[in-house]
Amino acid sequence: MVFKILTLFPEMFDSFFSSSILKRAIAKGLIEIKVINIRDYTLDKYNRTDTPPIGGGAGLIMKCQPIIDALKANSTPSTHKIIMSPRGYKYDQKKAVELSKSYNEILILCGHYEGIDERVYDYFDESISLGDFILTGGEPAAISIVDSVSRLIDGVITKESIDEESFDNGLLEYPQYTEPYNYDGKEVPDILYSGNHEAIKKWRKKEAIKLTKKYREDLYNSYNFSKQDKKLLQEIDEGVTPKREEDALIKGHKFIKK
């Protein structure tokens, strides 16, 4: 996958793309990232890429000429072209999966200042917004797109890490724990030491449902509960420990730390 980013501030990307998982993915040739300075394409004799809006108004607007010339010089008909914009599709995991599976090359334009010349939109395939809040520019949003799409590409991270993540199945992810068993009076749930993988799986699903209901009621209300899920809901409502968990704890008692 090739990512191309059109920006007025290429230095903003240096540290993020040269560390951690993305750095390794680039080294392996799984992704390629090209950061393109829009200023290199301006024909303005003063090297400007922005100007006050026609008709008056606050701030400066990014000019269309340098953006369009940068776009044409760095894209092909198969390049999927995205503008980071408040008017765009509100980004989610579904869109990240779509982008990772549908395109081999993605170009992202980072807006800045008070906006961009309206004519620029005609040259792009879609607009994307991270949400209903304002950033100083599109660079942080572009980083989020590249990061979220890259991690879905085969080999960037392990398949197991992706299989049970938040949002992938419509729920938040279940809670995770590490050693020690007891820290500051807070203990790891005993069921996780039981060795009964089926009981652990159902416990985790139940906890995922609880967390989603507590923190993301919108996801909870739109989730399509299966027949098995409804049994877990009943257990939650009744506040009881089901027999399968009791049996798992009895059989696995020797593994439980005290």
Would you write up a description of this structure?
This protein has helices at 14-17, 20-27, 64-73, 93-102, 139-150, 159-163, 197-215, 217-222, 227-238, 243-251, and strands at residues 2-7, 32-37, 50-51, 61-62, 80-90, 105-109, 126-129, 182-183, 186-187. By secondary structure, the chain is an alpha/beta fold. The strands form three sheets. It has a five-stranded parallel β-sheet, with helices on both faces. Helix 4 (93-102) crosses helix 5 and helix 7 crosses helix 9. The chain is elongated, with a radius of gyration of 24 Å. It contains ten helices and nine strands. Strand 5, helix 4 and strand 6 form a beta-alpha-beta unit. Helices cover 37% and strands 16% of the residues.
The major sheet is characterized as:
5 strands, parallel
- Determine Rg (CA atoms, Å): 24 Å
Q: What's the end-to-end separation, in Å?
A: 49 Å
Overall residue-averaged pLDDT value:
90
The largest beta-sheet arranges its strands as 2-1-6-5-7
Q: Structural class, from secondary structure content?
A: alpha/beta
* Helical percentage: 25-40%
Q: What's the β-strand tally?
A: 9
What proportion strand? 15-25%
Shape: elongated
